[in-house]
Design a protein that fits this description.
It is a single chain. The protein is of the alpha+beta class and about 775 residues long. It contains 20 helices and 33 strands. Strands 1, 9, 10, 11, 12, 14, 15, 16, 17 and 20 form a ten-stranded antiparallel β-sheet that branches. Strands 8-7-13-19-18 form a five-stranded antiparallel β-sheet, with no helix packed on it. Helix 16 crosses helix 18 and helix 18 runs parallel beside helix 20. It is globular and about 90 Å long. It binds beta-D-glucopyranose. The site of beta-D-glucopyranose has 11 residues, from helix 5.
Length: about 775
């Protein structure tokens, strides 16, 4: 096969329509949400799905390349630090007889952009560039390698359909002075630094061009600019390829230029087909471990593939200094900041399908412990209070004010009051350890996070005259209500955090006494303090009403105005805009899952036959889903309770956030937490999967149309495939790697061994 034929092959997207997302033509109003949806990323580099070729001389490309961890603070007072866009390395211009060719996608009805989910690549076909004397047909591909995250690849194949004139292709970088300070711009390399955060970025690049199989040397060269001029003729095939190698350095005064050049050489040595093959193999491996197959519901299958595609794109197991922002690397809403979204909505996916990625995300929290300790100390408490919005160092990044929908300045209190983040992180640490059995992580980092967050809660709660401990002046997940006392979610999670820390202290003392002595010594943790923690946990008020079994969301919530949300069913704006902030605060309208989130995370706290259902029935109708995180959490709980129809409605509602053109804004990036929520709802909700000490339990309630569902999970070093056949009412677990374990359906246990097939009935007795 000639190189040209090989390139022609990879420029064809995966033929199975269930693995691709297409967009035809061009719609200026939808373009920026399409850019988010069609973004490609490898957890280090993220590139929005903007068109590959520029539309003329003066067309400015919006920022579209993000580099994980490349945060900076602008010099402006009160400016919020955020991700700074890197230069756009994909810029290409065509000139016919010296005049730029305008490739306006709107001019070509046949233009199709395809996101190939299976191979993690963005392709375009059907673009026809027309000048009076020239017709070109273009096909393009771009990827950022999942196998070597520093590397990006761009391929363009042009077929000259008509014309015999002088043409030029110019490849360059756009926005070299956009957000970073250029230290040096060489012909093949740019090195930049951030204005204030002390980071460096190097991008080395090499494009090349072949005409009818023969390599053409560039006609002119400039700083990060290459151009080729020749006389074209009909039938000519022009293949353009460009590599980029990107290196971020966090050490001030270092120049990562040499490393970028070395990485580039490595990629050039492999060639575009070698880079492509390694990338494709990395994606195949990830799909093997993380893919979820639904038979019977094509829309659900598509939603799951799209979610898993972005979840896979968002993480980087090799970099412990970064985590995943609320829009991953697909847009700049929330400035790339990291929220509880990662620990609560994303970690379950990573823990159970890609534990290396989960570990790196939690190590980011370990490395940012000093900042969390500093925040707690600054506010007068002990232990670790994590930033509500976190970036490179873990310092608090939440903006202090924003402009509201009515253009009024609104004070944002989350940076000081939304403290449940510390318990959310502790929760994720515990889930990871419990699911993986990674004792090394526990000893190196996990135990310290659990102990320091527990210490925070013990100092944060105050013993009052009623003999109970209270946590006053917080914001729960429902951010419509600020400065509230005793938020049930916060307090129950805090109590759980303290108790797990006590468990860990006991486990360390028993199993790793030397580690315990060293850690307790370093943290100055003594018996008296552990005793205090125990008494705080035992006396912390949790808002549970014994008569009804309901948790009161916070002190005084039940006395607030009860508003029937059904009456506002057709609204197109959030409820706090409909009612106004003040009335919303005085009402029971909830922004997002709060007590319901507690039910999703700690179902065992809802004791007795009816408590879970009673709480869900109370809070679900009062929730206005003012956050994209909310529907999936409700769906998870509904699915576990067996209300499959309602759960499926929440599933589709969540899927629509990024896939349909709903009112939710996707211009600023995809909603990665909602995508994590889709996986949670499916694997933890519809299958009712839970982790036990000896194995895995399921309690499936699949939607009516789903004939079967199949997926893999990793548990304590084992790899397990689970297929659930709804039509035959059986589950078939297969242990593909690892020691025997238990598999149970609604607590009925079976031993599972490698090589021994098992079929278990899922029928309700
Ligand atoms: C939600 C938070 C969330 C943040 C980032 C907010 O609107 O209320 O819970 O962490 O968005 O996704």
């Amino acid at each position: 096969m000639t190189e040209q034929e090989a390139m022609q092959r990879v420029l064809q997207p995966t033929s199975d329509p269930a693995w691709v997302l297409n967009v035809d033509g061009y719609d200026p109003l939808r373009e920026s949400s399409i850019e988010s949806r069609f973004a490609i990323s490898n957890g280090f580099l993220g590139i929005r799905g903007a068109r590959a070729a520029s539309r003329g001389a003066r067309w400015v490309v919006p920022a579209r390349t993000y580099v994980a961890g490349l945060f900076d603070v602008s010099g402006t007072e009160h400016a919020t630090p955020g991700l700074v866009p890197a230069a756009d390395w994909l810029r290409v211009r065509f000139l016919a007889a010296g005049e730029p060719l305008l490739l306006h996608p709107g001019d070509v009805s046949s233009h199709r952009m395809t996101l190939d989910l299976r191979r993690g690549a963005l392709l375009s076909r059907g673009s026809r560039l027309k000048a009076p004397e020239l017709g070109l047909h273009a096909q393009t591909l771009r990827l950022v390698s999942l196998s070597d995250r520093a590397i990006g690849l761009q391929l363009i194949q042009l077929e000259v359909e008509s014309g015999a004139i002088d043409v030029t292709i110019e490849a360059s970088f756009e926005g070299v002075e956009l957000g970073l300070i250029a230290d040096r711009l060489d012909q093949d390399l740019g090195v930049w630094r951030t204005a204030q955060s002390g980071k460096h970025l190097a991008m080395a690049s090499e494009p090349s061009l072949q005409i009818d199989g023969r390599v053409q040397p560039p006609t002119t060269l400039g700083k990060l600019t290459w151009s080729w001029s020749w006389k074209c003729r009909p039938g000519q095939i022009v293949c353009f390829q460009r590599f980029v190698a990107v290196v971020r350095s966090d050490i001030p005064d270092t120049d990562p230029g040499r490393e970028a050049r070395d990485r580039l050489q490595g990629a050039l040595h492999l060639g575009w087909s070698g880079v492509f093959a390694a990338h494709e193999a990395a994606w195949t491996k990830r799909w093997h471990h993380s893919g979820v197959e639904v038979d019977g519901d094509a829309a659900a299958q598509r939603a799951l593939r799209f979610a898993i595609y972005h979840l896979t794109s968002a993480a980087n197991p090799a970099d412990e200094s970064v985590s995943i922002g609320a829009r991953a690397l697909t847009g700049d809403d929330y400035h790339g900041h990291v929220f509880w979204d990662t620990e609560i909505f994303l970690l379950p996916f990573y823990v159970l399908t890609w534990p290396e990625a989960a570990r790196a995300l939690l190590m980011y929290r370990f490395h940012t412990l000093p900042a969390a300790r500093a925040k707690a100390a600054r506010m007068g408490w002990r232990g670790a209070l994590y930033a509500w919005e976190s970036a490179a160092t873990g310092a608090e990044m939440t903006p202090e004010e924003v402009l509201g929908p009515d253009r009024q300045v609104i004070r944002i209190l989350c940076g000081t009051q939304e403290q449940h983040i510390s318990a959310d992180i502790a929760y994720a640490v515990w889930q990871y350890w419990h699911a993986t059995g990674d004792d090394g992580f526990l000893l190196e980092a996990g135990a310290e996070i659990l102990l320091e967050t527990a210490r925070f809660w013990a100092s944060r709660a105050t013993l009052e005259a009623d003999g109970r401990c209270h946590i006053r002046g917080v914001i729960g997940p429902d951010e419509y209500h600020e400065h509230i006392d005793d938020n049930a979610y916060t307090n129950v999670m805090a109590r759980w955090n303290i108790r797990r820390a006590l468990d860990i202290a006991a486990a360390l003392r028993e199993r790793w006494p030397a580690c315990w002595t060293a850690l307790a010594g370093r943290l100055r943790l003594d018996e008296a303090e552990l005793k205090l923690w125990r008494s705080v946990a035992d006396t912390l008020i949790d808002g549970l009403q014994p008569t009804t079994g309901l948790f009161e969301q916070f002190a005084g919530y039940f006395g607030l105005e009860d508003i029937d949300l059904a009456k506002y069913a057709g609204r197109t704006v959030p409820m706090d805009v409909v009612l106004g902030r003040e009335r919303t605060q005085q009402s029971q309208v909830v922004k997002q899952a709060d007590v319901v989130a507690l039910l999703g995370l700690l179902p065992e706290e809802f004791k007795g036959e009816t408590a879970a259902a009673a709480n869900f029935r109370y809070y679900e109708p009062r929730c206005s889903h003012g956050s994209s995180l909310s529907p999936a959490m409700h769906g998870l709980v509904a699915a576990r309770m067996g209300d499959t129809e309602m759960a499926l409605r929440f599933f589709h509602r969540t899927a629509d956030i990024d896939l349909a053109d709903t009112q939710v804004a996707t211009d600023g990036g995809i909603h990665i937490a909602a995508l994590g929520g889709i996986w949670m709802l499916t694997v933890l909700g519809f299958t009712g999967l839970s982790l036990r000490d000896d194995g895995i339990d399921i309690d499936p309630h699949l939607p009516g149309d789903w004939h079967s569902l199949a997926f893999r999970v990793q548990w304590r070093g084992r790899c397990l495939k689970i297929s659930i056949d709804q039509d035959r009412q059986i589950a078939e677990p297969t242990l593909e790697a690892g020691e025997p374990m238990m598999f149970s359906v609604r607590s009925k246990r079976h031993e599972l061994r490698q090589g021994a097939g098992l079929q278990v009935s899922t029928a309700h007795p």
